[in-house]
Write a structure and sequence with these properties.
Structural class: mainly alpha
Distance between the termini: 31 Å
Shape: globular
Helix content: over 70%
Strand content: under 5%
Radius of gyration: 20 Å
Number of domains: 1
């Protein structure tokens, strides 16, 4: 039975933004800054991975418009390289990548909740498990309800990030001395070649998620028309 196309442009956009701006952006920057020890190289890493994420998203947008079926990367690999490669990719996502990313984000969220309410240990694991189960139940409840909730959560996350930036400026929480030296690494930083690799992985993790929306191409309203109108 074909899927019902009930996701509009606003819902799909919110889903993309909500996937990208998740917990990862709150987990990786501190480690990246500590490892690189250079504002210049930290900016280079963010710009480079941002450009790569944008390039990938544009490619996926074109692929989703050409093959508007549910499945995303599975569909594209099947059409390009055959069913065997697509089959292996599907099992890899189900057994390794998707559960791993979900667990990492749930643990990250639990750590922030634990810090806010003052709990630790086994309680954090319970919070992480409960979060995954709650989100699963919301998605099982229905696509329209889940997409509506995602739109509200996306607006909340964007507002929270904007508020953090405004408060930092109003409260003068930053110091220009943090940008000095601009290029040279500070004492105690990791050697640059070794520091760049984990920093690039951390930035990719923070930008990740834009490919997930292609799995919902079969439930979007006329994705080819939406993409063509912006090409």
């Amino acid at each position: 039975m074909p899927l019902r196309r009930q996701l509009g442009l606003l819902a799909v956009t919110a889903l993309v933004v909500g996937e990208v701006i998740a917990i990862g952006i709150f987990l990786t920057p501190a480690g990246m800054a500590r490892s690189l020890g250079s504002p210049f190289w930290l900016l280079i890493v963010w710009l480079l991975m941002g450009f790569m994420a944008l390039s990938g998203a544009l490619c996926y947008g074109e692929l989703a418009a050409r093959a508007p079926e549910a499945g995303g990367g599975y569909i594209y690999l099947r059409e390009a390289y055959g069913p065997v490669v697509a089959f292996l990719y599907g099992w890899k996502c189900m057994l390794v990548m998707d559960p791993g990313i979900t667990a990492a984000l749930a643990v990250g969220l639990a750590s922030y909740v634990g810090y806010a309410v003052g709990v630790a240990g086994a309680s954090l694991k319970l919070i992480a498990i409960a979060t995954v189960l709650l989100l699963a139940a919301i998605n099982v409840a229905g696509l329209r309800f889940g997409s509506g909730l995602m739109q509200w959560l996306t607006a909340l996350k964007l507002g929270a990030l904007g508020l953090i930036a405004v408060l930092a400026l109003v409260m003068q929480a930053g110091q220009w001395s943090n940008f000095v030296p601009l290029v040279a690494q500070r004492a105690g930083s990791d050697p640059l070649p070794g520091a760049l690799a984990p920093a690039l992985v951390g930035a990719f993790f923070a930008f990740g998620g834009w490919w997930e929306i292609s799995k919902l191409a079969g439930e979007a309203r006329d994705p080819a028309r939406h993409w063509a109108s912006r090409s």
